Amino acid sequence: MKYFHVICITLLACFVLQGSPANGADKSPGHPLLIGYGEGVMQLDEQNHIVWHYQQSDIETVYDAWKLPSGNVLFCHRYGVREVNPDKETVWDYKIPREPGKQEINSCQPLPDGKVLILDCGNQKLLEVDRDQKVTHSIDLPDGGKNVHNRYMQARKTPQDTYLISYRDNKVILELNADGKEVWRFKLNDNDRAFTAIRLANGRTLIPCITSYRIIEVDPAGKITWELDKQDDLCFELLYPVGVQVRKNGNLVVINSDYHHRKGMNNDVQAYEITRDKRVLWTLKKSDLEEDGKVPVVERGTKMPSHHLLSIQVPGEPAGLK
Fold first, then answer.
1. Who wins on pLDDT, 297 or 320?
2. Where is the signal peptide (predicted)?
3. What CA–CA distance (Å, rounded) separates 75 from 16?
């Protein structure tokens, strides 16, 4: 009988967290969000309503999207980095040749001096580019392999003026100094592929691992000090944590993507906020992103419907912790 009560309490807690599956009406108040997805960028309000949406035919795979203090939105897509204003007018546009399999950009980061950090996967370079599109600093990256798409995922400049690069196929995080010299590395498990690496204020590094569906925090010695994985019962299935931001209070906002997940349409929770003691505060559901039963993206290759969420940001939160 005691075991039965525990099961009932657990199921009730999950029901309260997720809301009624019939109408999805019981939403926990969230935050304004900026989300990059397969074909564009969208902004949501505290009730998960889409209030702004940018989509153009030349945009594909938005791994990174940032709401700037000016109100403009900076994002990268497969063949460039673009900044648009709230009226969706382009104010800055960095382009690379549209050569599938040879060129690709996987990340961008606005820097405090107004420059933009760009990960050039095709040429295996890390670039700092100013507003006149002049490359002011360039680092030749250690080889990431033959497949342009699988070489790297994201790069981040740290408060220490070093650079964290996520190597996808090589399953490693490298930290380089301004001269391109390696100063730290973390080797992932064989079943891990890191999406990004975020340097925390305590000197540790947060690493979302997309193929093992887990997020780990490691110290400078490489010891895992915190982990979120499928063994943690969050009342929903953990999928690809492709976008993560650390809030000022230490909570994580996380994309729970069905990107490339062949059972993705069974996935209800698309994003969530979680505390360090693993309490889920709010969720973003499929129903929040759908209108008249439609989804934003149908994958070109598989023709499967997919929400294809990739990047997440709570505007106004520290940009260095994303």
1. 320
2. 1-24
3. 35
In which band, very low, low, confident or very high, does the pLDDT at 245 lie, cut at 50, 70 and 90?
very high
Q: How far is 22 from 17, CA to CA, in rounded Å?
A: 14
pLDDT-derived band at 24, boundaries 50, 70, 90:
very low
Please list, in sequence order, all residues whose beta carbon lies within 8 angstroms of the beta carbon of residue 24, skipping any fewer than 6 positions away.
285, 287, 288
Question: Which has the closest alpha carbon to 307: 252, 273, 266?
Answer: 266
Compute the distance between CA of residue 275 and CA of residue 220 in angstroms, rounded to an integer.
Answer: 23
Is 194 in contact with 208 (CB distance < 8 Å)?
A: yes
Give the chain's end-to-end CA distance (angstroms, integer): 46
Q: What is the pTM (predicted TM-score) of this model?
A: 0.88
Tell the burial category of 182 from Cβ atoms under 10 Å away from its Cβ (0-12, 13-18, 19+). exposed
List, for residues 186-234, the tens digit of each pLDDT value: 999 999 999 999 999 999 999 999 989 999 999 999 999 999 999 999 9
Which of the listed CATH numbers 2.130.10.10, 1.20.140.10, 3.40.50.2000, 1.10.3130.10 matches domain 31-321? 2.130.10.10
Across 15-24, 29-38, 171-180, least confident range: 15-24
Cβ-contact 219, 202 below 8 angstroms? no
The phi and psi torsions of 15 (rounded to 5 degrees) equal: -65, -45
Tokens of 27: 């939403």
Task: Say how far apart CA 237 and CA 26 lie, in whole Å.
Answer: 19
